[in-house]
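Researcher: Structure prediction, please.
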Amino acid sequence: MAILKTQYDVIVFGAGPAGTAAAYGLIGQKSVLVIENDLFGGTCPNRGCDPKKMLYSAVEAKDRVARMQGSGLTDVPQIDWPQLMAFKRAYTSQIPSGTQKGLTAAGIETYHGQAEFVDEHRVKLADQSIVSADHIILATGRKPRQLNLPGSDLLKTSTDFLDLSTLPAHITFIGAGLVTMELANIANQAGADVDIVHHNEQPLKAFAQPLVEILIQQMIDEGVTFHFDQTVKAVAKTESGYELTTDKETLASDYVVAAVGRDASLEGLQLAKAGVRTSKKGIIVDDHLQTSATSIYAVGDVLDKPQPKLTPVSSYEGRYVAQLLTGQTTQPIQYPAIPHILFGTTEIGQVGVSYQEASAHPDRFDISSLDVTHWYTYNRVKDEAARVIVIRSAKSHQVIGATVLSSMAEHLLNALTAVLDLKLTNQQIQQTIFAYPSIASDLQYLI
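Model: Predicted structure follows.
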């Protein structure tokens, strides 16, 4: 697409949730150019959370039926992978063009291709033309981390898995983080044999370990095989598939996915020419999301930050920088409570003060651990792993954190997030009438 101008008020690198949120927040007040060198829309809707959750639509339906065997339902349906993938692609195929058209219709100019900094205000495009701006926002996101070992070129990523036309009979995942646990559950429920190799014995360290142990046992019971405390040394192609060599054993597989984290997408930007400082974790910013170059900001997953790298957090940051640049605020960014969840047939999620922090400071926090499998809400759907951990301030008795494990954890987690953000008290919850019986109506017994 031809660039009509050479000077803009703001240039945004990246057309994912962070970049587009910033761009839309500038409409009517700033001239904006959005540069994207990959898919418009970014990782989440194209090859991340959205397509993953679409695959889970079938997985969740199958799981609900399986739970109700002998309680009103007979026969568990099987997942038709090609049909499910066609369903997913019908959605994802429209994202790039739809995102770009939406930006254009809003009066935001776009450029699809590589670009790099010349200096703090000037950017060189792939055709060697130069565009400049008063301010620049970096929102280039992250990409799957590559392993450095013999045969690493044979390894697939989450991107590859989420676009598989045919489901392999045997899939091995390297790493036991969020991405692996979610995709492994999909593959297992869809009929594949699944192995997970993890370098230590404690996956998902961000979540409450007592609940993680329950989740892992559930996956084992469903047929997933874990190989803990092992390091993959090499991967090789064989006549029938692949062979993984660890420091303890040799494994055969039809498909191998490396999911060992994600790195900031900074290649080719020439950030040093603009004076932008980075770390191994991403772009360094201050409490206004300003980089070491005063006219350049960074938002989203590309940041070196303690907050979870999640789509709604990225959008929140994009909107915040737009407010800064339009004079709507001068205050440092303040994050609300951020729920963090692992999706699956059994979900685990947390918000606010973590179980680990509360356990380390018993003088400051009170912890209530509840087995809610016998509660009506969970017994109704035969959820045998439902647990809730509620964390309160020892001083005020206010709820300031929670961890939830259940097949419907996302719904209770969102309700608890509202409780934390609004600082609702037990009395206020008791005075609220919820639709009953529902997940939200359980709040009066939890808070």
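Model: DSSP finds 15 helices and 23 strands in the chain.
Researcher: Thanks, that helps.
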